[in-house]
Amino acid sequence: MITGLGRFVANRFLGFPRGTNLSSYTQLCVAFFLSATLHFSGDFVYEKRIPSRSFKFFLLQPAVIAFEDFFIYITRSLFRRGGRAGKPWMVVVVRVVGYCWVTLWLCLTLPMWLDELNRLGFSSSDRRPIGQFLLNQWNRWA
């Protein structure tokens, strides 16, 4: 359903041709907006004092995915320019770096989403020094 709605908004409502970056990124934003809305409703029912935490988390994700796509585009163009596009070990390295990036990004942003529950006493987790530092940085930016 989310894919269908994203395609509808991108291709029919906004008129972006299928297969273009505008269409893909619009569909991505629609999917994350719907996910944020669904999580927002759950947050609001669960605790009315913390409704914005889902929007902060889920609407940040498409921006980071767009950044990742730009980085991948630059990396691929550099590999092609150097004539190294066909080496299998480079594909493996890029894939491993990608998995590490996704794991790091979740470690960086998940405390922002979940800390409101800890602060209100619904959950307790030991953040350790690094987790606490990251959370303090998010709170400074928010």
* Class from secondary-structure proportions: mainly alpha
Strand content: under 5%
Query: Mean pLDDT, as a whole number?
Result: 78
Low-confidence stretches: none
Account of the 3D structure:
The structure is a single chain. The protein has 142 residues and is mostly helical. It has one domain. The protein has 5 helices and no strands. It is flat and about 55 Å long. The relative contact order is 0.08. The model has no long low-confidence stretch (mean pLDDT 78).
Q: How do the helices and strands line up, and which of them pair or pack?
A:
Layout: H1 2-13, H2 21-46, H3 53-81, H4 88-120, H5 128-141
Helix pairs in contact: 1-2, 2-3, 3-4, 4-5
Describe the structure using short key phrases.
flat; mainly alpha; 80% helix; 142 residues
Summarize, please.
The chain has 142 residues and is mainly α. It has five helices and no strands.
